[in-house]
């Protein structure tokens, strides 16, 4: 069970491992792009390449969906970023249980956006946990885990790719032990749980009163989706990248202006005042236009020093 590109490497690992993949469950096809073209999920596309039966229930909890799963007679269900909660009726189907490949070091970042929050919060390390699924949200016992560092150059997009591969490799290592009955699952400490709900529109808006480092983490944590933004003349201005602020940048000692004030616009970037110093924006996207680097943006000549964003 999986939907986005994140889940594809894990499906391929199952196919390469010699187990029989009796079916794939993924979200229904959705309209994509400006032309709203009905598009299959990446997992469906991969499954069809290998001739695997695909189920796409709108609601997995419905009786007919549960019966369709039972008809496949799975010994084990593996989920990775599927996008729907499994009911007890589904969890009870396979004799080896249901396991989930979750992109965090549980119990940290339970929920639907663990990669976003790990980057936005400035964590140096995240990882993947394989766990038995339970009725709660990512509350099941942990089977195995692997740590993956978050570099300064990483965005949620790059971590998505890294964790996808790490999860597939962890599944490859864990699967034989699980099938042989040799795994020793460990209960999560619920008192240490941290949740990562889906990103809201309000979270995408940059608050220039925050420290520069906090904003830098937000920008890379919301790249490539959904994107951080500010307001410029009432229109959305997306901020896709900025330079990591130096902790003792001399510019922060200069005369301070109001947070959100543009201090300078050049080929090197758009310097803007934050809650504790300057931040250099290096990739921006005005409303109705494509993303552009700071040089392209500066040559447009529309944003000038003294403008207040937000």
Can you describe this structure?
The protein has 2 domains: 5-192, Formyl transferase, N-terminal domain (Rossmann fold), CATH 3.40.50; 202-300, Formyl transferase, C-terminal domain (Methionyl-tRNA Fmet Formyltransferase, Chain A, domain 2), CATH 3.10.25.10. It is 27% helix and 22% strand. The protein is built from 9 helices and 14 strands. The chain has helices spanning 8-17, 42-49, 63-72, 88-91, 114-120, 156-179, 201-204, 212-221, 294-300, and strands at 24-25, 30-32, 37-39, 54-55, 77-79, 98-102, 125-132, 142-149, 228-232, 235-242, 262-266, 269-273, 278-286, 292-293. The longest helix has 24 residues, at 156-179.
Short description:
The protein has 9 helices and 14 strands. The protein is an alpha+beta fold.
Query: How many β-strand stretches?
Result: 14
Number of domains: 2
Kindly name the structural category.
alpha+beta
Count of separate DSSP helical elements: 9
CATH class category of the largest domain: Alpha Beta
* Percent helix: 25-40%
CATH homologous group name of the largest domain? Formyl transferase, N-terminal domain
Percentage of β-strand residues: 15-25%
The major sheet is characterized as: 6 strands, antiparallel
Anisotropy-based shape = elongated
Average pLDDT over all residues: 95
Compute the separation of the termini in Å: 41 Å
Task: Round the Cα radius of gyration to an integer and report it.
Answer: 22 Å
Organism: Paenibacillus foliorum
Domain Formyl transferase C-terminal: 198-300
Pfam family, one: Formyl_trans_N
Enzyme class: transferase
